[in-house]
Design goal:
The complex is a heterodimer. Chain A is mainly alpha-helical. Chain A has 27 helices and 2 strands. A two-stranded antiparallel sheet of chain A has the order 1-2. In chain A, helix 6 crosses helix 26 and helix 21 crosses helix 22. In chain B, the strands form 3 sheets. In chain B, strands 1, 2, 3, 4, 7, 12 and 13 form a 7-stranded mixed beta sheet that branches. In chain B, a hairpin with a 2-residue loop joins strand 5 and strand 6. Chain B is globular and about 65 Å long. The chains are: A mainly alpha, B alpha/beta.
């Protein structure tokens, strides 16, 4: 890592020499390190590592006997290759579009009048549960021109077999562009302005300025980061497909996550394990490539106060600045309007008329809360998100503290392992994890759901917190060591320095659990129906239920929307820092 | 699969209590040393609420667990965890037979079987032993229409075809609405045609997953469907649009937006129609296709899981004459139980359907796709659902080669059957 680490390690000797013997050593002993890492290791070992190994084993065996590649052949027979191909297509096309749009919109809306409102509208979709995004776009693309605005405008059957993938991708792009805008905005703010003047002073053309003063120092890497983040996120198309694609076209929209889920139905089967292994291999390779590609170079754009330098600002042409941001904001706001307007119609009107017609009222909301089912789901989800967030924070902080002082080869290895654990798709783990939970008698319970969420959330949280701890200024570490008697008190003294990272972890984890659908679908049960699953249940007969579904979606979106908008700087900082180093 | 079907169609109703809400409830405070009897069901939403009302009448506390879509997964998980419920209400006779052979179930008194017509009892008798008691039935051979839109309901298959052709050409509302986005709607159509043939053995063998789909009866039925579905203008918005229409939306097309004259599906359509239209739709029977009036049914059977102390008494009570009185009163319920007085049903259509279903004049046929083995039984994008959706897409394409579509479908069905039973 940084040369600082060497200095730190060098100086620890001094601390040891100066401090009273009982103060312990500068970095945790092997015993303490083990104890600190134990909770995270147990969770990841039991609920991530073992399930991955079990899946790998199941992919080449049948009832204990080695069968070679037979399961792989079965999985790839029929349309297996095209499913994998479509999965890869998602991972290439969607990030390209999101990155390009995000770049352009960030440049155009930067320091423009009304830029804040535009940013707010663009960022809001990030916060929504993906199930809600699916609901929104299914309303927009309803094949009946009297209800579906997009169908009315274009006359095309967007949910039909030919266009379904494009319809799904458009929903995904809508949801993710805001993140790209935020990251690019931070990158633009961090651009070294004097560099551009220097290039110009040496007679550089506009192109030279862009290449040498903007692209090379920072933007190339930012583009890579955004691309990698979005590519990784495309494995979450699962939620969108299950909500948006009618049963008759689900095959035309099929990607690996849905196929693995469909063919395993909660248990471990050979062919689904084989497809899962292939898919996991692609994800891990992609992650490694991204990690290598984005390594070195400049530090990531620091969120928060940008350094004001003197020099010429980089700004988009005026016409673009004037027109593009408002146009984008209006375009991005349409789905919100459709969702909210639909929810304000009584169930009967919502199912039979357009969202722009008829009397409005709160009948759908009233009916939504009848019977208490939704209230129970809301309470359960809130409790789940709170418990998981606190647990993840504690477990991750301990592990991060232990890992923060590890020196280069070990640090990188730990980083790669954690990043790997953070990107393993839930569907690949589902069968074996169900077996583990069954054995513990926790399948379909609140505790079971919480455990899975914690195991899935810990790797990323450790990465973010480890980076934050490693960034604490040397002097402060030294003061903490001198004052703290035991490891935990050193940690307690260092913790305030990591507040932004802790906030990021808390918000991200809380929103992640609140917005979850996949974990709830795989590991929920009659006694534990989280919000995402409850909403999905209502979408199964979509049109007749659209008023209730829309109302439920609005209710489910309020809290994550407020959280993400209030803490958007920390969230982006956390995402970028966790994904990067 | 019917269990999924149930999940689906019920979800809407009291959708608020979103299906899954599946939360459990105990009736009354827990007596009996604190342990209530446990019943696992597939119902959710409104149906779940009504079943809870039913068990409130039982003298002991009963805890109802809604398994949602997949009761098989729930029971297997509970079995592994050593926490089997006392009673399960299963939506498919195939599950009853499977569990009975695995030794999971307690046999029931043969006398209990006499409460149902033999056609019903046979379905849940395994090797001469009765393992279940029917508690609910679905009638799946009905067409629905508004009398203000369609004045003369067709009485025979040729009449129906003639109505489809004339209305399709007439420019008014389309003759048929169909929820082809839900594969089970299409399998229900085919089953009603197959049930029109006398060859019951064939139906049974097909249901068992045997690759006999190139039988002439199947070809004739598919050809008849192709003939009717391929009529231009048969469906509102055309065939591509119909493939994006779900069952409940197809009901809306008939009763609310009135873009279609009739829709075929089971007795549960009444509940959907009630939400969207004040004029109650009427029904006519799915017309006889090959000489026999079809009666395709679905049903839910209660079974007692092994080693349950109080399960047997509960099932005997559920199979009594009075247990389901609250559900009958609130509508949307048919029982195959002959002890239930017909007078309890609202006069008119519900009473007629109940009478027909409990004493089938001719032999009834249980939903075929619900009995198919393994991956052959449908789900979104899978099995027989997907095959029939492809068939539907093929025949509704303008100037389609219908004969070829039938050939392809028969071949697909046979291939999938072989794969599923291999």
């Amino acid at each position: 890592m940084s040369p600082e680490r060497g200095v730190l390690l060098g100086e620890t000797v001094v601390i040891d020499d100066v401090g009273p013997a009982r103060r312990g050593r500068a970095y945790p002993t092997i015993g303490t390190t083990t104890a600190l890492l134990l909770p995270a290791a147990l969770l990841l070992g039991g609920l991530v590592l073992w399930p991955v190994l079990r899946t790998g084993h199941a992919s080449v065996t049948a009832e204990g006997d080695f069968v070679g590649l037979e399961h792989f052949r079965t999985a790839l027979a029929d349309d297996g290759w095209s499913v994998l191909g479509r999965t890869l297509l998602w991972a290439m096309v969607v990030p390209t579009v999101v990155t390009a749009l995000g770049f352009v919109l960030a440049a155009a809306s930067r320091r423009s009048s009304g830029g804040r409102i535009v940013t707010l509208i663009l960022v809001a979709p990030i916060a929504l549960p993906l199930v809600v995004t699916g609901v929104t776009f299914r309303l927009l693309y309803d094949p009946d021109p009297e209800r579906g605005t997009a169908t009315w405008l274009t006359g095309a059957l967007w949910l039909g077999p030919e266009l379904i993938t494009i319809a799904l991708m458009s929903a995904f792009v809508w949801a993710w562009v805001g993140l790209a805008v935020l990251v690019f905005r931070a990158a633009f703010d961090a651009l070294p302005l004097a560099l551009a003047d220097a290039v110009r002073a040496y007679g550089g053309t506009r192109l030279d300025v862009f290449r040498d003063a903007r692209w090379r120092p920072l933007l190339r890497r930012t583009v890579a980061i955004v691309f990698a983040l979005v590519a990784l996120a495309t494995s979450r198309t699962f939620d969108l497909i299950l909500v948006m694609a009618p049963g008759s076209v689900i095959d035309e929209a099929m990607v690996a996550p849905v196929r693995v889920w469909q063919t395993s139905s909660g248990t471990v089967t050979g062919p689904s394990a084989a497809l899962g292994v292939l898919w996991l291999a692609v994800v891990l390779l992609g992650m490694l490539a991204a990690a290598l590609w984005t390594r070195q170079a400049w530090p990531p754009p620091a969120p928060g106060a940008p350094v004001r330098e003197t020099g010429s600002e980089w700004r988009a042409p005026r016409l673009v600045r004037r027109l593009l941001p408002p146009a984008a904001a209006v375009w991005w706001a349409i789905p919100f309007v459709v969702l909210v307007a639909t929810s304000l119609h009584a169930p009967r009107d919502a199912a039979t008329r357009g969202w722009w017609t008829g009397p409005i009222g709160l009948a759908s909301y009233r009916e939504l809360f009848e019977g208490g089912g939704l209230t129970r789901s809301l309470a359960l989800t809130a409790a789940l998100a709170a418990v998981v967030t606190v647990t993840v924070l504690v477990v991750a902080l301990l592990a991060a503290y232990a890992l923060a002082w590890v020196s280069p080869p070990g640090a990188q290895a730990a980083g790669v392992v954690l990043l790997g654990a953070a990107v393993v798709p839930v569907q690949v783990l589902a069968g074996p994890v169900t077996e583990v939970l069954d054995r513990a008698g926790l399948a379909g319970t609140f505790v079971g759901l919480a455990l899975v969420h914690v195991a899935l959330g810990v790797p990323f949280a450790v990465l973010v917190l480890r980076n934050a701890l490693a960034d604490v200024p040397l002097a402060r570490v030294r003061r903490a060591r001198l004052a703290g008697r035991r490891e935990w008190s050193v940690l307690a003294r260092l913790a305030p320095a990591t507040v932004p990272a802790v906030v990021a972890v808390c918000v991200l984890e809380f929103v992640q659990v609140w917005n979850d659908f996949v974990v709830g679908l795989h590991f929920g049960g009659p006694d534990a129906v989280p919000l995402g699953l409850a909403l999905y249940g209502q979408t199964r007969q979509f049109v007749s239920n659209s008023g209730l579904v829309a109302a439920g979606s609005v209710v489910a979106s309020v809290l994550p929307l407020l959280l993400v908008i209030a803490f958007r700087r920390q969230v982006v900082g956390g995402l970028v820092s966790g994904a990067l180093r | 699969m019917r269990d999924r079907l149930v999940g689906r169609r019920t979800l809407l109703r009291a959708a608020a209590a979103s299906a899954a809400t599946a939360t459990t409830a105990t009736t009354a405070a827990c007596g009996r040393g604190g342990r209530a009897l446990e019943v696992a069901v597939v119902w959710s939403g409104g149906e779940l609420a009504r079943f809870r009302e039913v068990v409130r009448g039982y003298p002991e506390p009963v805890r109802v667990i809604s398994a949602g879509d997949n009761i098989d997964a729930l029971l297997r998980a509970r079995d592994r965890a050593g926490a089997r419920p006392d009673v399960a209400i299963l939506p498919r006779p195939g599950l009853v037979a499977g569990y009975a052979r695995d030794g999971w179930l307690e046999p029931l008194d043969a006398a209990l079987g006499e409460r149902y017509a033999p056609a019903w009892t046979d379905l849940i008798t395994v090797d001469g032993v009765l393992y279940g008691a029917w508690v609910k039935a679905a009638h799946k051979s009905l067409f629905w229409y508004l009398p203000s839109v369609l004045t003369e309901p067709p009485g025979s298959w040729p009449d129906l075809l003639a109505m489809v052709e004339s209305r399709a050409a007439g420019g008014g509302p389309a003759p048929l609405a169909i929820g082809a986005a839900d594969g089970w709607v299409l399998t229900d159509w085919l089953e009603n045609l197959l049930a029109g043939f006398d060859d019951e053995q064939l139906y049974r063998n097909l249901a068992a997953g045997e690759p006999l789909w190139d039988a002439w009866q199947v070809r004739t039925a598919l050809a008849a469907l192709a003939r009717m579905w391929s009529v231009p203008g048969a469906f509102p918005g055309g065939g591509r649009r119909a493939l994006l229409t779900q069952n409940e939306e197809s009901v809306i097309q008939v009763v609310a937006s009135r873009s279609a004259c009739t829709v075929f599906e089971g007795d549960f359509v009444a509940g959907v129609a009630r939400q969207f239209q004040d004029e109650a739709p009427r029904t006519f029977r799915f017309p006889a296709f090959a000489g026999r009036q079809p009666l395709v049914v679905g049903g839910d059977a209660a079974v007692v899981l092994r080693d349950s102390a109080g399960g047997r008494d509960l099932v005997r009570w559920l199979a009594g004459s009075d247990a389901f009185r609250p559900w009958i009163a609130s509508g949307g319920y048919l029982s195959p139980n002959r002890l239930v007085p017909l007078g309890l049903y609202p006069a008119g259509q519900p009473r007629e359907l109940a009478a027909e279903i409990r004493e089938p004049v001719d032999r009834l046929r249980f939903d075929l796709s619900d009995q198919l083995p393994g991956s052959f039984t449908g789900f979104d994008g899978q099995g027989v659902w997907k095959i029939l959706q492809d068939f539907f897409a093929a025949v509704t394409t303008p100037s389609a080669d219908l004969r070829r579509a039938v050939d392809d479908t028969v071949e697909q069905l046979n291939t999938t059957a072989k794969k599923a039973t291999a």
